[in-house]
From TrEMBL, chain A:
Main subcellular localisation: membrane
Membrane topology type: Multi-pass membrane protein
GO biological process: protein transport
Subcellular localization, as worded in the UniProt entry: Cell membrane
Organism of provenance: Litoreibacter ascidiaceicola
Transmembrane feature ranges: 32-53, 100-126, 146-172, 192-213, 219-240, 261-286
UniProtKB keywords: Cell membrane, Membrane, Peptide transport, Protein transport, Transmembrane, Transmembrane helix, Transport
Protein name in the entry: Dipeptide transport system permease protein
UniProt similarity note: Belongs to the binding-protein-dependent transport system permease family.
GO molecular function terms attached to this record: dipeptide transmembrane transporter activity
A Pfam short name: BPD_transp_1
GO cellular component: plasma membrane
Automatic annotation (TrEMBL), chain B:
Any one Gene Ontology cellular component term annotated for this protein: plasma membrane
CDD domains recorded: TM_PBP2 (cd06261)
Lineage of origin: Bacteria, Pseudomonadati, Pseudomonadota, Alphaproteobacteria, Rhodobacterales
Topology with respect to the bilayer: Multi-pass membrane protein
Family under the similarity heading: Belongs to the binding-protein-dependent transport system permease family.
SUPFAM superfamilies to which the protein is assigned, alphabetical: MetI-like
Organism domain of life: Bacteria
Localization terms from the record: Cell membrane
MF-aspect GO terms: dipeptide transmembrane transporter activity
Organism, as annotated: Litoreibacter ascidiaceicola
Claim: Disulfide bond is one of the keywords in the record: no
Main location (coarse class): membrane
Transmembrane parts of this sequence: 9-30, 92-120, 132-156, 198-218, 256-282, 302-328
Protein name: Dipeptide transport system permease protein
Length: 301, 335
């Protein structure tokens, strides 16, 4: 009898921590793990790209312009994925380009999430009229198609990668505000928040220490998904000539430069887009895995 | 229901004013003086500058300017384009049918493939078909559509020579356009080959623009179907011995459609954003290309007016979806 009880007590103590539990569910999703590995490679390239790349990303090899990849006639091992119209090495540009996309994702998600969470918390805790005003403003921002709004914002601020990031962050922010506010409103009714308030917790403690940690799960999933949206939108802006400017080896900008050669040199168009697709796909796979692992409603099904 | 409709309509008004304010202030914030831009390379004398500033009302306080703009907007006056000198309103509605035609075709494409794909995936949950379809959907969902467009051009226009690269129809054909929809007008004109030409121009842009909605609809249909298939009435139908085809096709799909319809309605914004890229790549003479060109030409009244009209259009569609949802699902109205 005693043994059974203590075994049970031990089991309770052995209950895996939150991170372990999360990892247990995340690992079950094979796609998510593959996505995580690809993302790890992407992050590695983002940090160490310039040292790994076989050539300088902006060096122009005039003797070898528009050289096809190694497996086609006329290709050579010096330029494995061929060269672009200016004779720059494709593989090196792609590797170095990883850091721009990674940087865009990190910066945009940090700005949008921080701003969105704070505004969402305020909307959730403030009196009704403040809440209404904030939500109306978010409705207004959401009424514009995101890419169009980002495009006009960049036109105002001037085309550059930094301004593209600011514009995309502004456009993505309302999603975080809505998400945070919705979770805050449902958490606020719960007993633990009421008891914290009765115990004399101040408004900031209630907001950031009592309520926020319990609202994080959907926000983390949203962060993963908007990481990929940010990369796609930044590439689209680059493609339209409103993002990173040449000769920056940003993937979308590379596509824009390659556009007129599409019927003559398929590789200058194919590889940068493939890089965008694989990266975005990996992040979306990871996001799906995160959602399944963090959402308690789906765990049981 | 009436109360719900009225309260939704009331929130429309402040949002509309806000949207107007944003598109109004954007133009005041754009770099460069609009009058200098209009004067172009030759420059402008100080007297003429003052005269023009007075004519356009730039010399008056900003809130007066905004009030005039707002009242103008409500009367359908969005100013004239700097480049063509024509009213922005007229230009927008001359080009709008092209975008509408493309969007409708893209949506038909997305629904026609997305719904069956979602249903098949849900019915075969966890099996090969489910995994194959959902992996494909995730790839489509992650697709940079501007690159997808270029790939399709390489394969279908470059290598196979099946489809043209740009425009809505071959230059050979000319006919009046009462509806503005090229496939209808070309058919009505009765010219030989015009309809086929219009159709061939439409194929690639439709696929490109429809890809992301297709992926979203397939994923949404699958999850909605899975939810419905777990309901008691489905089990009852099964216990009664009803055929699986009837259960899935009629009982389950009909109820799964409600969230799917919402997603279809809400992807109008996505379509318009996608139209910017698709139209630019295929030189499709619609709203998206017009906006991009105007941004590059610094044609302020067009950017301002186009932004406003597009936003209002998205708002009206969202409002309609909300109302329809209220009609279908009474629980929503109570909030």
């Amino acid at each position: 009898m005693d043994d059974a009880l203590s075994a049970e007590a031990e089991m309770v103590q052995d209950r895996p921590g939150r991170l372990r539990e999360f990892w247990f569910y995340f690992r079950e999703n094979r796609g998510a793990v593959i996505g995580l590995w690809i993302f790890a490679i992407f992050a590695f390239l983002a940090f160490f790209g310039p040292w790994i790349a076989p050539h300088d990303a902006t060096a122009q090899y005039r003797a070898a312009t528009l050289q096809p990849p190694v497996w086609q006639d006329g290709g050579s091992w010096t330029h494995i994925l061929g060269t672009d119209p200016l004779g720059r090495d494709m593989l090196s540009r792609l590797i170095v380009g990883a850091r721009y996309s990674f940087f865009v994702g990190v910066v945009v998600v940090s700005i949008a999430a921080t701003g969105g969470i704070i505004i969402g918390l305020i909307a959730g805790f403030a009196p009704k009229w403040v809440d209404s005003i904030i939500m109306r403003i978010m409705d207004i921002v959401l009424a514009f198609p995101s890419l169009l709004l980002a495009l006009v914002l960049v036109a105002i601020l001037g085309p550059s990668l930094t301004n593209a990031m600011i514009a995309i962050a502004i456009v993505l922010q309302p999603h975080y505000v809505r998400l945070t506010r919705a979770s805050v409103l449902s958490e606020r009714q719960k007993d633990y928040v009421v008891s914290a308030r009765v115990a004399g917790a101040g408004i900031f403690r209630l907001m950031f220490i009592t309520v926020l940690p319990n609202c994080l799960a959907p926000i983390i999933v949203q962060a993963a998904l908007s990481f990929s949206t940010a990369i796609l939108d930044a590439a689209a802006l680059g493609f339209l000539g409103m993002g990173a400017q040449p000769p920056t080896p940003e993937w979308g900008t590379m596509l824009a430069e390659a556009r007129e050669f599409i019927l003559r040199a398929w590789w200058v168009v194919t590889f940068p887009g493939l890089a965008i697709l694989v990266t975005v796909l990996a992040i979306n796979l990871m996001g799906d895995g995160l959602r399944d692992a963090l959402d308690p409603k789906l765990k049981r099904s | 229901m009436l109360n719900y409709a009225l309260s939704r309509l009331l929130t429309f008004i402040p949002t509309f004013i806000g949207v107007t304010l944003i598109s109004f202030s954007f133009i005041r914030a754009l770099p460069g003086d609009p009058i200098q831009v209009m004067a172009g390379e030759r420059g402008i004398s100080d007297e003429r500058y003052a005269e023009l500033a007075k004519q356009f009302g730039y010399d008056r306080p900003i809130y007066v300017q905004f009030w005039e703009y707002l009242t103008g907007v409500l009367q359908g006056d969005l100013g004239n384009s700097f480049v063509t000198k024509r009213p922005v309103w007229d230009e927008f509605f001359a080009l709008f049918p092209a975008t509408l035609e493309l969007s409708i075709c893209a949506m038909i494409f997305a629904v026609a493939l997305g719904l069956p794909a979602g249903v098949i995936a849900a019915v075969n949950r966890g099996k090969f078909f489910d995994r194959a379809l959902m992996s494909t959907a995730l790839v489509g969902y992650s697709m940079p559509i501007f690159w997808w467009a270029l790939l399709l051009i390489i394969v279908f226009s470059g290598n196979l020579q099946w489809t043209p690269v740009s425009g809505r129809i071959d230059l050979l054909y000319y006919f009046p356009d009462p509806t503005g929809f090229m496939i209808i007008d070309s058919l009505a004109s009765g010219q030989k080959g015009a309809f086929v030409s219009a159709l061939r121009h439409l194929i690639l842009p439709t696929i490109v623009l429809g890809t992301i909605p297709l992926a979203v609809i397939a994923r949404q249909t699958r999850s909605a179907m899975l939810e419905v298939l777990g309901e008691d009435y489905i089990r009852t139908a099964r216990a009664k011995g009803m055929s699986p085809g009837r259960i899935n096709g009629i009982h389950a799909l009909r109820n799964a459609l409600i969230p799917v319809i919402t997603v279809i309605g809400l992807s109008v914004g996505t379509l318009l954003a996608g139209a910017i890229l698709t139209e630019t790549i295929f030189s499709w003479p619609g709203i998206g290309k017009w906006m991009v060109d105007s941004i590059f030409r610094r044609d302020y009244p067009v950017v301002q007016g186009g932004l406003l009209l597009i936003a209002v259009m998205v708002m009206i569609v969202n409002l309609t979806v909300d109302m329809l949802y209220g009609v279908i699902n009474p629980k929503i109205r109570k909030r």
